[in-house]
Amino acid sequence: MSDYGALKLTDRDWCNACFRHSRFQGCEYNFTNALLWGDLYRQVVACRQDLFLARIDDEAGNPRFLYPAGEGTLEDKLAVIREESGSAPLQLIAATDPLREALDARWPGRFEYREFPGGADYVYSVDKLADLPGKHLHSKRNHIARFEEHYPDWRFEPVTAENLPDCCAMADLWYEENLEREPSLAEEQPILQYAFDHMEELELEGGLIRADGRVLAFTLGDFITEDSYDIHFEKAFGEIQGTYPIINREFVRYLRSRYPDLRWINRENDMDLEGLRKAKLSYHPDLVMKKYLVRER
Q: Model pTM?
């Protein structure tokens, strides 16, 4: 790909080659995320010097770039962005603290930073989410215990072609119940359906909780790096106590059993929603990966 355009499924191999080389843990450096959400955020991408470039213009039409993924030094990558920016100020989006430190060490005072509200990724150790140890996670264990009491026949199933229709039906009902409260979910619903339709091509994995013969919760995700996993979607009937904690725990246990080298679970950002922020903080993340808008002075 030489010109900027919307990402396509056929771009998967070259994008993933760039991501594998950089090993960035931010959820922006995941092909599934870039593909599913790119149109909604008006993101366009291009390949420059074997680098993955993603651009989202600001309100004035000036280009803003994700820090490039792929092989090259900090100086090389900034030179590419400088050239792509033309006469506009150089701007980076979703910059993390390590990148901020590297920029300031190399060019002191050249850039200004503004934290992006709701943009921080919440990252947890696999063992924390799988085992829920300690007093801080006691309430999660209690919620799961209540669920198990009410649904003694519950079971976890990996999402397969055979039970995927059950997840789709559960998702339709979930959106029907929640759209009035949160109209913006209407933008998410077709994105989730696309993920369902292309699970194999995207190498997505999922899990579900079934009780009383019906699906009460499901989740979907895939790898960011070889030791970091991204949770893209998680839906549960929240009025049933324990559905969210149990699908979270059981899917991470499933992943841990399949991938012994897996260390981190990225549950993405809170979109600056107070309720979602509280839910993510309630699991006591090992890392809150802050994101910044960077602008050349």
A: 0.95
